[in-house]
UniProtKB/TrEMBL annotation:
<protein>
    <submittedName>
        <fullName>Lysine transporter LysE</fullName>
    </submittedName>
</protein>
<keyword id="KW-0472">Membrane</keyword>
<dbReference type="InterPro" id="IPR001123">
    <property type="entry name" value="LeuE-type"/>
</dbReference>
<keyword id="KW-1003">Cell membrane</keyword>
<dbReference type="GO" id="GO:0015171">
    <property type="term" value="F:amino acid transmembrane transporter activity"/>
</dbReference>
<dbReference type="Pfam" id="PF01810">
    <property type="entry name" value="LysE"/>
</dbReference>
<feature type="transmembrane region" description="Helical">
    <location>
        <begin position="150"/>
        <end position="172"/>
    </location>
</feature>
<keyword id="KW-1133">Transmembrane helix</keyword>
<dbReference type="GO" id="GO:0005886">
    <property type="term" value="C:plasma membrane"/>
</dbReference>
<feature type="transmembrane region" description="Helical">
    <location>
        <begin position="192"/>
        <end position="209"/>
    </location>
</feature>
<feature type="transmembrane region" description="Helical">
    <location>
        <begin position="6"/>
        <end position="27"/>
    </location>
</feature>
<keyword id="KW-0812">Transmembrane</keyword>
<feature type="transmembrane region" description="Helical">
    <location>
        <begin position="121"/>
        <end position="138"/>
    </location>
</feature>
Length: 212
């Protein structure tokens, strides 16, 4: 369904993109550091889920329609920033006595999964990325339609991204184990995550959204 002659270039571009730090990497890394590998794993799965949804939207042409509407992009940006600010505030106002121990923190996995999905879907730059990046590798040398090719390319991107994030979770989760056993850090781990959400909100709200 894709032109295999463009695959080496595509894979090289994907690897380069994965190595560039971004908001997704920051959220997954901080989740793994603050709450352990399981929570980081679910944050990675949330990121992959949103990536699949964006891939489907791009393949169906829905993303392009949204990307051509500056008002829609700005609405997404404001909603995404507001959502991240709310998540940050919720974390900051959590009382130290409510901070879970290492075992109880695993219950946060579903919450971080949901937050990763929503924050990525409300990021207009993520939507623009799929609109601008995938079509570059659509070929006329195959019988598959552009939508079918974008679907396969997007799924490949998400699989490679998930594998990279799982590696990141394993490395950072292991390094963070001593922190999770530190009483002082555990008392403030929610506040650390709150700070990360505030940083992501500022990152999103202060960024310029490109138009197609």
């Amino acid at each position: 369904m894709i032109d295999f002659s463009v695959l080496p270039v595509y894979l090289t571009a994907v690897v380069a993109l994965l190595l560039i730090p971004g908001p997704d990497m920051l959220l997954i890394a901080s989740s793994s550091l603050s709450y352990g590998k399981k929570v980081g794993l679910f944050a990675s799965l949330g990121n992959a889920t949103s990536g699949i949804i964006l891939t489907l939207l791009a393949a169906m042409g829905v993303s392009a329609l949204i990307a051509m509407n500056p008002i829609a992009l700005q609405v997404l940006r404001v909603l995404g920033g507001a959502y991240l600010l709310k998540m940050g505030w919720d974390c900051m106002r959590t009382q130290p006595s409510e901070t879970p121990d290492v075992e109880q923190s695993n219950s946060l996995a579903a919450t971080l999964y949901r937050r990763a999905v929503i924050s990525n879907l409300l990021n207009p730059k993520a939507l623009i990325f799929f609109v601008l990046f995938l079509p570059q590798f659509v070929s006329t040398q195959t019988s598959a339609t552009s939508g079918e090719q974008m679907l396969v390319l997007g799924l490949l991107l998400n699989v490679l991204g998930l594998l990279f994030n799982l590696f990141l979770v394993t490395m950072i989760g292991s390094l963070g184990q001593p922190l999770l056993k530190n009483e002082k850090f555990r008392t403030n781990q929610h506040k650390f995550m709150g700070l990360i959400f505030f940083v992501l909100a500022i990152w999103l709200l202060a960024s310029q959204v490109p138009t197609v």
